Amino acid sequence: MSVYPIVAIVSTLEEKIPRAWTSVLGVAGLRGIISVALALSLPETFPQREIIVAMTFGVALLSLTIQGELLQVYVKRLKL
């Protein structure tokens, strides 16, 4: 996850970010935006492009919904 190196750099320059917060940032950063961007970048003439785009949006939406619910449990478990 790209959050950890960025947090390490920021922690050396500014005040230290707690490890639990770093974990929450890492979990919260898991999204399907790259998949959606890649699906939308397919040429219009690509076979079954519409199906690929629709499925990608569906998976991204599902992952955001599930992730939002699980993130609440994760934050409560960390007692933040």
Keywords:
80 residues; mainly alpha
Description:
- By secondary structure, this protein is mostly helical.
- The protein folds into two domains: 1-30, no CATH class; 31-80.
- 74% of the residues lie in helices and 0% in strands.
- Helix 2 (19-28) runs antiparallel to helix 4 (49-78) and helix 3 runs antiparallel to helix 4.
- It is elongated.
Task: Report a brief summary of the structure.
By secondary structure, the chain is mainly alpha-helical.
List the secondary-structure elements in sequence, H or E: HHHH
Q: What is the terminal-to-terminal distance?
A: 21 Å
Low-confidence stretches: none
As a percent range, the share of helical residues equals over 70%
Radius of gyration: 17 Å
Number of helical regions? 4
Tell me the overall shape. Answer: elongated
Structural class: mainly alpha
Topology readout:
Blueprint: H1 3-13, H2 19-28, H3 33-40, H4 49-78
